[in-house]
Write a structure and sequence with these properties.
Number of strands of chain B: 27
CATH topology of the largest domain in chain B: Jelly Rolls
Number of domains of chain A: 3
Oligomer: heterodimer
Helix content of chain B: 10-25%
Strand order of the largest sheet of chain B: 1-13-22-15-20-17-18
CATH architecture of the largest domain in chain B: Sandwich
Radius of gyration of chain A: 26 Å
Structural class of chain A: alpha+beta
Shape of chain B: globular
Strand order of the largest sheet of chain A: 1-5-4-3-2
Order of helices and strands of chain A: HEHEEEEHHEHEEEEHHHEHEEEEHEE
Strand content of chain A: 25-35%
Number of helices of chain B: 4
Number of strands of chain A: 17
Chain lengths: 475, 395
């Protein structure tokens, strides 16, 4: 979908909410929408929960009025900055982070909220407010941390509820960068088995730790790749992008974009996280900050009789030169007169061209990981089928950053001579990449009676049906 | 590959199959061979229960009126099991596995230039008629009547196990099992449950078997077999001096989440903690994918062996334990702790002699009794700090 189409859907959602026509939400909100903004789980889940929450919002705040100040698109997510006012009923202040009124009366409140909706297949599939439940009151009337949110724990929660709970935690506290919301999520005697350097135990410990992280890193975007739940445990496998904007462990701020991954196991009892285990790619963080060197190669990949020297050489190219981005390896394993038979436009031949290519990939996809799926060899030739995964954060082959995650397979055949890479023939899924980055939209079915040629839609290109947008060299 | 003395047997997995529907107990569980002379033709006929077989030799051209499940290894050794659309005619060649659910009419023609041979497992409500068309020979190896069966779906595995001298292994499974000796001799010790012994020298497996009491060891020679009732616990060992001994073993168990957890734990305790890299083949599918390889790590099962081998060489006193195991469906997440003394180079770090204690979390996809995929994160920064390669600055 184009950015314009995404914004139109978000506007219809906003209008439905603002006008009070709650049933109109059904046209733009997916049946199984995940709403991270709810104050309590009593609203239920999915579209009906979202409607109930929206209705309650309208009912609670008499005279609700809101207007869009700014609307922007980031990937498949639309961010709406809106402001307005309504009457805050007595007793509700604490829940939205306002100081309680001492006289027990009502008051008119202005608010400024950042609402985010993620859209898939024309419907809103996720909704959250950046600053936490219902957003945060605009300065200066900024209230204290909620002391006892969710006063009545419900019955033991289901594994599905626990998964949603962790999704909300990630959206509201981590991506929302709001450590003051930790009392919603952590038990007072919370215990982290895998504390980071300097982290203390308990709710206060985790709150302080998260605050210290936000002092060093900002702009968190977390993707929960997978959740596995059993009993009161939830496993989350995640990846995360952020920027190093402040000093960390006395290393100075590097200004670098960081991408790391990890797996976290949490135990949830009575609606709170009581225990946590975590393994995360902390070395990758430090490497990307430029303060430590990448780990060396795992021993035993060669000389064990199960892989030839040629295979090991090709594999070193992929893992050490390309995946770890060590250009010095090129000079060691590539012949000075290396011949690349499939040069990209503007690419030099020889070892210099390989460095150029690797640099182009790595700067466009800073979190990239390339792995060998299949490796076969015969005589002096080694064929590799590889997959590169990464987020498109910089211009690549003329395509400006889209922020989209792409998984790009390719194949490269090397000829090895005298212990060095001498020649290469390579092809990779360029069309698939264009599709994943949204530069080209492939039709689901060939339209009857017309050519099934993809038409360009993105990058501000105005190319018509029947041609690819001009993304290539020279731009 | 022959294991060294005292090591667990080396497995060669021949069949990994899920019986979605099984007959009710009592039911016959049988291990048998079939041979098909060139040109011989079977069917159309249907078995009264599920049959799965591994193709040993020749070629069978097969067709079924219902869905069958085929692992076609001819083109790709890492192929997974696929459903074959009813009515399709296809060739089964050596190394392939074919599963035919009960009551599925099918035909098979021996279409190769030499005799076709299969070895398979069947679970039938009763002993079926023993009449086959000319040129087709039915050779029952070992069978028995299961008094009770666990609930379906049932994971059925058939492994060829090679025991070195002094090698032994213990098995406990929720379903019935079979053992048949191909070469050498093996002694069996029953800890609990009920096991019957059939001797090759008697009138074959349909003769009345001997009942073995728990405690007393029995010795099995070539052609002898055991039928093991559900929930029995037994140990097999090669006590003879004529190493090695080769057996074929069928194990059945309810395909539950807890079974999948036990497979994840066997990977850590038997392979990593026990250091038996030869067990990888029985636990890890040939098409296994490790989603995040270390620098220089080989893809697939080779890379798993490489990692464990490198780790155990670098930390010769390495031990590992699984602290937490969380499973949902086919995904199993394990949180582990590994300890050892850094005696050899690891990931480019020269030995430091330091003791380390590292935790990690590995998520597996486990299906049909095998590990197919893994996602792993572990405390590499902690390792660096513990071997003194980096120092955390003061905050």
């Amino acid at each position: 979908m184009s950015d314009q189409q995404l914004m139109d859907i978000a506007r219809r959602w906003f209008d439905a909410l603002n006008s009070g026509d709650i049933n109109a939400l059904e046209e733009v909100v997916a049946y199984d929408v995940v709403d991270h903004s709810g104050l309590s789980d009593s609203h239920g889940y999915g579209l009906s929960g979202h409607k109930k929450l929206s209705q309650q919002l309208r009912n609670t705040f008499a005279g609700w009025q809101s207007q869009i100040d700014n609307i922007s698109v980031k990937g498949d997510t639309v961010i709406i900055d809106h402001s307005g006012h309504g009457t805050v009923p007595a007793g509700f202040e604490q829940a939205i982070g306002l100081a309680p009124l001492t006289n027990g009366g009502q008051r008119q409140a202005d608010f400024k909220v950042k609402s985010c909706v993620r859209i898939k297949d024309g419907k809103i599939v996720e909704h959250w407010a950046m600053e936490g439940p219902f957003g945060k009151k605009s300065a200066p009337d900024y209230g204290p941390t909620p002391s006892s949110p969710r006063p009545t724990p419900g019955p033991p929660s289901s594994t599905q509820e626990n998964k949603l709970f962790m999704q909300k935690y990630v959206k509201n506290v981590i991506d929302g960068q709001n450590p003051s919301l930790t009392p919603y999520y952590f038990a007072p005697n919370f215990y982290n088995h895998d504390r980071a350097p300097g982290e203390q135990t308990g709710l206060q410990g985790v709150t302080n730790f998260i605050s210290s992280i936000f002092a060093a890193f900002t702009g968190f975007q977390t993707t929960i790749e997978e959740q596995i739940a059993e009993d009161d445990l939830v496993v989350g496998r995640w990846s995360q992008s952020f920027k190093n904007t402040g000093p960390y462990l006395s290393f100075p701020a590097s200004g670098k974009d960081i991408h790391i991954a990890g797996i976290t196991i949490t135990r949830i009892r009575d609606g709170k996280i009581v225990e946590e285990w975590e393994a995360r790619d902390a070395v990758a963080l430090l490497v990307q900050m430029g303060v430590v060197q990448p780990l060396g190669a795992l021993e035993g990949g060669t000389g064990t009789g199960d892989r030839s020297l040629n295979e090991a050489l090709a594999s070193r190219f992929v893992y050490e030169a390309w995946n770890s981005g060590n250009p010095a390896i090129i000079d060691e394993i590539v012949a000075p007169d290396f011949k690349n038979h499939n040069l990209l436009a503007g690419q030099a031949d020889g070892p210099a061209g390989l460095k150029q290519l690797i640099n182009a990939w790595r700067s466009a996809f800073p979190d990239m990981n390339v792995a060998i799926d299949l490796l076969v060899s015969e005589g002096s030739k080694v064929a590799i089928r590889w997959t590169l995964n990464g987020t498109h954060r910089g211009t690549f082959l003329g395509i400006p950053a889209t922020g989209k995650y792409a998984s790009i397979p390719g194949m490269t055949i090397f000829r090895i001579d005298g212990g060095r890479l001498k020649e290469a023939w390579g092809f990779w899924e360029q069309a698939g990449m264009l599709g994943q980055l949204g530069v080209v939209k492939f039709p689901d079915y060939p339209a009857a009676g017309s050519g099934s040629v993809p038409s360009g839609t993105g990058s501000g290109s105005s190319s018509g049906p029947g041609s690819y947008p001009n993304y290539g060299s020279g731009s | 590959m022959t294991p060294s003395s005292g090591q667990p047997p080396v497995p060669q997995p021949l069949i990994r199959c899920i019986f979605e529907r099984i007959p009710s107990a009592p039911a016959l569980l049988a291990l048998a061979r079939f041979t098909y002379e060139t040109g011989s033709f079977f069917g159309p006929a249907a078995g009264p229960g599920p049959v799965v077989f591994h193709m040993d030799a020749g070629k069978l051209t097969f067709s079924a009126e219902g869905s069958v499940f085929f692992k076609n290894t001819a083109a790709d050794a890492t192929a997974e099991i696929r459903e074959v659309i009813p009515g399709t005619t296809f060739d089964v060649t050596p190394g392939d596995q074919l599963f035919v659910p009960g009551d599925t009419p099918h035909t098979a023609r021996s279409s190769g230039t030499s005799t076709a041979a299969v070895m398979g497992v069947a679970m039938f409500p009763q002993v079926p008629p023993q009449q086959f068309p000319p040129g087709i020979q039915f050779i029952p190896l070992v069978l028995g009547n299961a008094d009770s069966l666990p609930s379906a779906p049932l994971l059925v595995t058939l492994d060829r196990l090679t025991f070195g001298r002094g090698g032994s292994h213990a098995r406990a499974a929720s379903g019935p099992g079979l053992v048949w000796v191909e070469s050498g001799s093996i002694s069996g010790m029953i800890s609990s449950g009920s096991v019957q012994l059939s001797r090759a020298v008697s009138a074959g497996p349909f003769a009345t078997p001997e009942q073995i009491s728990p405690g007393g060891p029995v010795t099995l020679g070539v052609g002898d077999g055991l039928f093991i009732q559900s929930d029995s616990v037994f140990t097999l060992s090669n006590d003879s001096d004529d190493a090695p001994a080769v057996i074929v073993e069928v194990v059945t168990a309810s395909d539950t989440v807890s079974l999948r957890k036990s497979i994840a734990k066997r990977f850590f305790y038997d392979v990593w903690n026990g250091g038996n890299l030869s067990l990888v083949e029985g636990l890890v599918a040939p098409g296994f994918v490790q989603h995040k390889l270390l620098n220089g790590q080989l893809p697939g099962p080779d890379g798993l062996r490489q990692f464990v081998r490198s780790w155990r060489e670098a930390f010769p006193d390495a031990s590992i334990s699984v602290d937490l195991c969380v499973a949902e469906g086919h995904k199993v997440a394990t949180r582990w702790n590994a300890r050892g003394t850094h005696k050899q180079s690891f990931l480019g770090f020269a030995p430091t002699g330091k003791a380390v204690n590292i935790s990690g979390i590995t998520t597996f996809r486990i299906d049909t009794g095998m590990i197919h995929e893994a996602w792993e994160e572990w405390d590499q920064a902690g390792l660096l700090a513990q071997v003194g390669a980096i120092q955390w600055p003061n905050q």
